[in-house]
Structure prediction request, 588 residues.
Amino acid sequence: MAELSTRPLRLTINGQAVGPVEVPDDLMMIDFLHEYQGLTGSRLGCGQGICRACVVILDHDDGTSEEMRICITGAHFFNGKRIRTIEGHAERGDDGDIVALNPIQRKFVDHFAFQCSYCAPGFVNAATVLVERLEREPVARADLEATIDRALGHHICRCTGYVRYYQAAKSAIEELGLVKEG
Amino acid sequence: MRRLLIGILLVPGLTTQAADDDSLIERGRYLARTADCAACHTAEGGAPFAGGVPIASPFGTIYGTNITPDPDYGIGEYSADDFYHALTEGETPSGRQLYPAMPYTSYHLMRREDADAIYAFLMSREPIARAAPETDLSFPYNQRWGVAFWNLIYADALEPDASSSQSSAWQRGQYLVEAMGHCGECHTPRSWTGAMDLDRHLEGGSLAGYRAPSLEAEALADRGWNRDDLAHFLKHGMSPQGSVFNEMFPVMHHSTQYLTDEDLSAMATYLLGDTPPEARRIEPRPLEALSDSARRGRQSYLDTCAGCHGGDGQGKPQVAVAMSGNTTLRLEDPTNLLRVMLDGIEARDFPGFARMQEMPGFAAHLSDDELADLGNYLRETWGGRPGDIAPGDVANLREHNAHAAP
Prediction:
């Protein structure tokens, strides 16, 4: 093994500037969030980029967003970048406590989409990325099902709660007015 | 009574005849595997041998034809003579020239009895009354008379090696590699006319933006291949040198995984020679000995590759191949490495419930500079190659990909 070599990392997490922090060159992002930031909501599942329980949102300067699998992506990949984690979605009061869920979280709760909830952070982040994409370009009614399937279909839920995840995402997309009728 | 007696006397004869037919068909089934007919004539999800596989050529897309015994859409009206003629001369019974995507330049070397066995096998399949898509080539490549002219120059050029100083395994391997497997069709460079440049036989060709590497013994050994690993690679699609990807995957999937160990060993013997050159071992080069570019590339490796390929390039079973010992990193031409880094590799199932998961492409996440540095890190550390990839090389491949044929 190579000796533990570190370098400074600076990034924005949930709107908050973080760092510079000295971080080992080869630390995975999920370990950085868990061990350095105390943000334990992102879940380590397969550790090989398949299950997507670890997915966070990477925000680009052009206003687009995308999913990133942080169990296989190093912390330093995110140097200078902006990410959102599952902890960043709900509205919080001055004391930091959650006062209101965001509309996507709300829909997931309303549809009882979470069972054991281990995969939920990845599903919520994926649904958020999908909603943000549809806000830029709404989806035709005929393509709605396939669009949700493409966006969430790679995520694995061992409780097999897929139907409810699908229903929650569909309901959120419809209620936010992102479906083009006709 | 007399009739009964004749009947009894006839039965053993009939049974023997049926058994002969069965064994001929079975032989044909195996030989069709060795010739990889399915690669072009069985579409993904389609009926076996009913055609429809799109074959990208520099001149346009050619579609594999229906070779089931259907009289209208397939080869049902072919006699064994017709079949042999089409296979080895590239001409149908009606005198139509086949496009040389049909590797008759290699099948030219096929033995008549083997062609007959394949014929018997194909004729025993279910006829599928379905037309394969029409090939639509641009002028002048849509001119079939041009193909006849092409044949005039090239089709007789490949001759079997009559040398008897080689082992029987070598000779069997030669037949499997050259005639049946038609390996040279991809692994031999092609001239502007589209014909194989036979002066550079098996020196490596190009296919859909990738390089089909050299299969010359010295080149294989230089890239770390020995006989056992090469045979194992063809059987299982995986070996310490890496896993099959791109256009070689279907070759393993449809053909080589079904070959006997003896035949695969014979192919490896032919390619590496009866006295193979020693496979080159490469010790990983330490960080201190790397170029500036490669040192910069190390951080990209840790950020985007190490999660699956391992911090020390050791790989993960069923997930991602090892970088240490990887044959692609050793190619002088970095095209395949860069293509894979840009485009990724789709998830694949391998024989025996093995699999390799999807490798994501990094075209959107890494810049030309970062990909060049990363490629140099990989090649210098594990490939025994200089870090000579320039950002412009990456940019060229991106550009090429943007204009690649579908």
